[in-house]
Write a structure and sequence with these properties.
- This protein is α/β, with parallel strands linked by helices.
- The protein has helices at 14-28, 48-54, 70-87, 97-110, 132-147, 157-165, 183-187, 194-200, 222-229, 246-255, 271-274, 292-299, 330-342, 344-361, 364-380, and strands spanning 2-7, 32-37, 58-60, 91-95, 116-121, 151-154, 174-176, 208-215, 235-242, 262-264, 280-283, 304-307, 322-325.
- It has 2 domains: 2-180 and 363-380, 3-Layer(aba) Sandwich (Rossmann fold), CATH 3.40.50.2000; 183-361, Glycogen Phosphorylase B (Rossmann fold).
- It is built from 15 helices and 13 strands.
- Strands 3-2-1-4-5-6-7 form a 7-stranded parallel β-sheet, sandwiched between helices.
- Strand 8, helix 9 (222-229) and strand 9 form a beta-alpha-beta unit.
- Helix 9 packs parallel to helix 10 and helix 9 crosses helix 13 (330-342).
- The longest helix is centred in the first third of the chain and has 18 residues, at 70-87.
- 52% of the residues are buried.
């Protein structure tokens, strides 16, 4: 089968990693696979090196950008149309909203033979990101695009439920396929690197280190990370990431008197090694499709304290592998972390349970089996 994956950008994040893992395993199974990705904006780190490590062919499409631009979006659509006409893929599988729009329109414009059109919602911008007017516009656009899409993938039940709630598509068009990752490969350095990474941030073996990774954007509520850490005495908060709100995070750390207990690493390429340095992992997001950093932290044996946002409950099992709290409930998040801080045996028990569940729940083979089955069902309808 000839497959083209299109994604807005191969930046550090769960969507890009998932696409690369999917493409790599599909190639292992004998498919002809190409990943097409757009421009990575300034301030964001690239995962193109991961594509090279996994042996995934990828093509950069400079016109495919994150920001809305009629001229560049039209150029990206035309370039994708030409690529589809040239390669004649069996399946065009798009990911993220911008690539989803330009890619699916390009497939229609390319004419016959038309590829099967599949789009994955790794999350969505249908609520919580923009003002109500813009959100209504995005919902209308996604409804229109759904009409020219053969199959829609949601990465969690919560994402599927949101798509149904906003009337993006009917239930028979949506398939839930949870992420899959080569967790052992990704996390191999974690245990061995523990002491070295803790030394980098000035943490001793007995210090309580709270980790986080991601983009410092409003939807992640990074200010809450600082507010929580301020209520967990004698802890270190380590932030692996960057973004527009970094200055605000640094300001809040000063305001709450914890600037000396906050370490901002910026984007790191060896995130798999950093999980071993953490005693707990914290997420304060207002929405998540399926938080990959929580999957990886748990797989590394690190208990996760998180907000009950979007698909997070499919990853973190409350009281079994970590704790969940309402979005914005800083006090509860802090109290759960203090419990973990004072009880090493609890940390070990939750971490071990999380490691076992993640490997069972989020395997690459299972993900690819389910995606391939979807492709076959859609091909059989032609």
């Amino acid at each position: 089968m000839k497959i083209v994956h299109a994604i807005a950008r191969l930046n550090v994040g769960g969507a890009a990693l998932s696409v690369l893992e999917l493409a790599a395993e599909q190639r292992e199974r004998g498919h002809d696979v190409l990943v097409v990705a757009g421009t990575i904006p300034p301030g964001e780190a690239s995962m193109e090196s991961v594509a090279q490590e996994l042996g995934v062919p990828h093509l950069r499409l400079p016109e495919l950008t994150r920001e809305l631009s009629l001229a560049e979006d039209a150029q990206a659509t035309w370039r994708l149309r030409s690529l589809i006409r040239e390669r004649r893929p069996t399946v065009l599988h798009t990911h993220t909203s911008k690539a989803g729009a330009t890619g699916r329109i390009a497939a229609i414009l390319a004419g016959r033979p038309m590829p099967i059109r599949v789009h994955t919602f790794h999350g969505h911008v249908l609520s919580g990101y923009f003002d109500p007017r813009r959100e209504r516009t995005f919902r209308l656009v996604e409804r229109g695009l759904a009409y020219i899409t053969d199959g829609i993938v949601a990465v969690s039940e919560q994402v599927r439920d949101d798509l149904l709630r906003f009337h993006v598509a009917s239930a028979d068009k949506i398939t839930v396929v949870q992420y899959g990752f080569a967790l052992d490969r990704r996390l191999a350095p974690a245990v061995a690197a523990r002491m070295a990474k803790r030394a980098e941030i000035g943490a001793g073996e007995n210090d309580f280190v709270i980790g986080w990774a991601g983009r410092m954007a409003e939807i992640k509520r990074p200010g809450d990370l600082v507010r929580v850490a301020a209520q967990v005495p004698a802890s270190l908060l380590v932030l692996a990431g960057d973004g527009d709100l970094r200055v605000e995070v640094e300001r809040l750390a000063v305001v709450h008197g914890v600037a000396d207990r906050v370490r901002i690493l910026g984007y790191v390429e060896d995130m798999g090694a950093w999980y071993g340095a953490f005693d707990a992992f914290l997420l304060t997001s207002a929405n998540e499709g399926a938080p990959v950093v929580a999957i990886e932290a748990l797989a590394a044996g690190v208990p996760v304290v998180a907000t009950d946002a979007g698909g997070t409950r499919n990853v973190v099992d409350d009281e079994a592998s970590g704790f969940l709290a309402p979005v914005g409930d800083v006090e509860t998040l802090a109290e759960r972390l203090r419990r973990l801080q004072s009880d090493p045996e609890l940390r070990a028990r939750l971490g071990a349970e999380g490691a076992s569940r993640m490997r069972e729940r989020f395997s690459t083979a299972r993900m690819v089996d389910e995606v391939d089955a979807l492709y076959q069902r859609l091909l059989a309808r032609q």
